[in-house]
Amino acid sequence: MKCGIVGLPNVGKSTLFNCLSNAKAQSANYPFCTIEPNVGTVSVPDTRLNQLEEIVNPERVVPAVVEIVDIAGLVKGASKGEGLGNQFLGNIRECNAIIHVLRCFENENITHVDGTINPIRDKETIDIELQLKDLDTVSKRIDKSKKAAKAGNKDEQKVVEVLTAVTAHLEELKNVREMELDEKEQEIVDSLQLITAKPVLYLCNVDESAAKDGNEFVAQVKEAVKDEHAEVLILAAQIEADINELETYDERQIFLEELGLEEPGVNRLIRSAYSLLDLETYFTAGVKEVRAWTIKKGSTGPQAAGVIHTDFEKGFIRAEVIKFEDFITYGSESKCREAGKLNVEGKAYIVQDGDIMHFLFNV
């Protein structure tokens, strides 16, 4: 599951990416610094792992991860190929969700491609390019479906109907994610992998003075996206870079306290990206390993088991499940079992975030 970082050049994407990942993307004060998309695998901060480690004392702890893709800065005309636009837009299409970075700080030493700081204009610039790309995708599919619809194919007639509505929506400069669609309509839209249908998180990159409470630029962004069902996060990428340079946990905590922050902004961002991708976590806990496993929300027991190994899913018999809170309260699997807090679940069980699971299978 990939989350793509997008935005205009010089808004702080590569600085942010460097904070998120050990992959060191070049960060410089000019457009198109990042030509190939940088990909980083980022651990998801989860304090529950620390609690499990204290109780179980395993040989190792393995967190869940999210894949983050740093996509080069888009510019006006990207949908027509300007500034390597087609390549960049193709990279976005391959992502499951989008982190849209907006510059919400003044700094005369860092140039802006349009000369002034205006996050709403910047957002609209990116949106229009993505909408134009989606219009092109939808238009090609409508042309193809119309031929089959004329021959009496009712499924394709439905496709034409839905995509005609999508076209009208995009022509109003609205993103597809804002549309109210039923299950069948959503299925048709999903099949096209439209960029503006992907879930989005708006990240307001601010300076140090606005790191805690934001500023007027952030307020403008929140007002502009209020109908998009999108989250808005405030983060100071340069401060995050400074935190990354500090050697010890204690040094980082002192620095955060001086700024009035409880934790690094990237921690909140990674958790939000994880949620944006519609993911959740279950755990396995033993003396060899305590591990967080990533699943899609709504996964069944066998599907969750399949994340460990396909044989677990094929030969799934049942799962032993302990709720995280119960495990912490009673302090061990055996005590949870004695207290009746270990449940045996079958193939229809929907795994809940935080479940501690042990699978029985036979291949």
Automatic annotation (TrEMBL):
GO cellular component: cytoplasm
Needed co-factor(s): Mg(2+)
Record: residues binding ATP: 10-15
Entry keywords, A to Z: ATP-binding, Magnesium, Metal-binding, Nucleotide-binding
Pfam families for the chain: MMR_HSR1, YchF-GTPase_C
Domain TGS: start-end pairs: 278-361
InterPro entries according to UniProt: ATPase_YchF/OLA1 (IPR004396), Beta-grasp_dom_sf (IPR012675), G_OBG (IPR031167), GTP-bd (IPR006073), P-loop_NTPase (IPR027417), TGS (IPR004095), TGS-like (IPR012676), TGS-like_dom_sf (IPR023192)
GO terms for MF: ATP binding; ATP hydrolysis activity; GTP binding; metal ion binding; ribosomal large subunit binding
Residue stretches making up the OBG-type G domain: 1-255
Record function comment: ATPase that binds to both the 70S ribosome and the 50S ribosomal subunit in a nucleotide-independent manner.
HAMAP family: YchF_OLA1_ATPase
Family listed: Belongs to the TRAFAC class OBG-HflX-like GTPase superfamily. OBG GTPase family. YchF/OLA1 subfamily.
Protein name (database record): Ribosome-binding ATPase YchF
Native source organism of the sequence: Empedobacter brevis NBRC 14943 = ATCC 43319
Higher taxonomy: Bacteria, Pseudomonadati, Bacteroidota, Flavobacteriia, Flavobacteriales
Chain's gene name: engD
